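Wait, mind explaining this?

_____
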Amino acid sequence: MKQFELGYESAARVCPEPTLASRLRVARSGGRRKVGHPSKGGELSARGGSACGGKSFRNKDFGSPPCPGFAGGYAEARRGTRLVLRSEGLLRRVASGGWVRRLKKKIFTSSLYIMKSTCLIIVLALGGCVAIPNSPTPRFYALQALDESYAGEKFNVPSSVIIGIGPVKIPEYQNRPQIVTQDAENLITFAQFDRWGEPLDIALSRLFFANLSVILPGATLEMSPWNLDITVKYQVIMDVVRLESRLDKNLSLTVQWSVIDQESKKILSIKKSEFIQPIEPHNYSGLVKTLSMECASLSGEIAKTLSLSATQSGKENTGMIPNQR
């Protein structure tokens, strides 16, 4: 066994390691090339010999160790399939040319797909980064209610009279966050970056509630929906029949509203109010301001009717007959 205990460097000096091309030629020629054997000092067929114990490298037992004296420590497998090269503990696999071409094609296709995907992601990311700063910031508007400095006419209603405000119904095309306008051809435009701060029907209910609180300072008001345990004397319901806005001209508001006696379930008054005012300035801020002014005028009409109804109800309760007009 001592004759086989040669290191790789000693074996290389006796039998220089052939190149990869020469090893492939040995594999494809059936392993008939003879190489020097370090223990015999002569030539030994790659198919096997006495130094290898008579074991041929072309047998099917690929697990058997190669001839220990075979320079470079390589073994030949089946012809035309693969050649296993053992050199300094490294295992290399060499396949047929068709398999290598298919492998290269798959690697190229995968690499091309990865490059396209990466470029697409980069383009989308850069496009998003560029578009975000240029996107306009949405502007939200709120209707302006009357304040305590209101100098218009005010009406008296007993504090024992509870008045319910709402609900307010609006056209379906106005039931959206965007402010809606029309042009000369009645085409509807939805402002993508000019919006209401809350749903318009709720905003109008809140606006009328605030306005009537100023015009009817002594009244007790409740906004719809209110608690069923609260005894509401009068309810004011409103239906916005028309709300058209042209930024370059006027704002038209038509509201049909009713006052209902909740105790007797009778309709005390049904009216329709129409308002047309120019929008100044001709932008969305001017539109919101004009709509707030028209709602303030409507609030005055509703307050006057509520005051009259409360007065008549009080006279009837005291046994006085109101004058018929």
About this structure: The longest helix spans residues 97-134. The chain has a mean pLDDT of 75. Residues 194 and 284 are 7 Å apart (CA to CA).
